[in-house]
Write a structure and sequence with these properties.
- By secondary structure, this protein is of the alpha+beta class.
- It is built from ten helices and six strands, in the order ααβααββαααβααββα.
- The strands form two sheets. The protein has a three-stranded antiparallel beta sheet with strand order 1-3-2. The chain has a three-stranded antiparallel beta sheet with strand order 4-6-5, with helices on both faces.
- Helix 8 crosses helix 10 and helix 9 packs antiparallel against helix 10.
- The N and C termini lie far apart (96 Å).
Length: 206
């Protein structure tokens, strides 16, 4: 009879009289500061000379989302010519530090604040960069002509590629930077983007 009672109690999820119920330990989630023994994490983003003036003009637009929304300390180190980022005690997520670094880096590359700030809000964005010489070796006037073809009259070619692939493109001298989403850009769209860019470049005479 006692065996039957114990079996029925176990089936019902009740502890038997001969055993004590054991509670599973519960641990609170670690804060970002606790993950590194209380030491802050840092990121440094170098700033080229020609981006000093735009950075100074847009500083508050960069500072506000980084400091107030992402809870990351940010400052401009004029001597070292770089933007320095650091986690705080109240930083809610360790990934915020890298997101902020990517956001600042995207602006330094030439993307508008309105486009770069999406890197803080979405997890699947990335910046891809390549040089014109990676597609075709061009020199002198041929190189300048190829850069002009990429942009098009009034930027029409660049805007058309951006709209068809849901990306943002920055043409900085001989370098091309692309800001896009892994989710929104399907594989064939990404291939189309690079195909369009490469077709324009290869149409240039060497």
């Amino acid at each position: 009879m006692e065996v039957d009672n114990a079996a029925s109690a176990a089936a019902a999820g009740e502890p038997s009289s001969g055993a004590m119920a054991v509670e599973k330990p519960r641990f609170e989630a670690l804060t970002p500061s606790e993950m590194n023994s209380g030491k802050p994490q840092f990121r440094k983003v170098p700033v080229p000379q020609h981006r000093f003036a735009p950075l100074k003009k847009a500083w508050m637009d960069i500072y506000t989302p980084v400091y107030e929304h992402m809870k990351i300390d940010i400052r401009m180190n004029l001597k070292a010519r770089r933007v320095e980022l650091k986690t705080r005690q109240d930083t809610p997520d360790m990934s915020n530090l890298q997101k902020c670094a990517d956001f600042v880096h995207a602006f330094i590359l030439g993307f508008d604040i309105a486009d770069a700030v999406a890197l803080l809000r979405l997890d699947d964005l990335y910046v891809d960069s390549f040089e014109i010489k990676d597609v075709k070796t061009l020199r002198g006037e041929h190189l300048s002509r190829a850069i002009g073809r990429l942009s098009g009259k009034g930027g029409k070619t660049k805007y058309a590629i951006e709209n068809s692939t849901r990306t943002r493109i920055v043409i900085a001298d001989t370098k091309i930077h692309i800001l896009g989403s892994f989710v929104n850009i399907k594989e064939e769209q990404a291939l189309k983007l690079h195909s369009d860019l490469h077709t324009v470049l290869k149409s240039s005479r060497s």
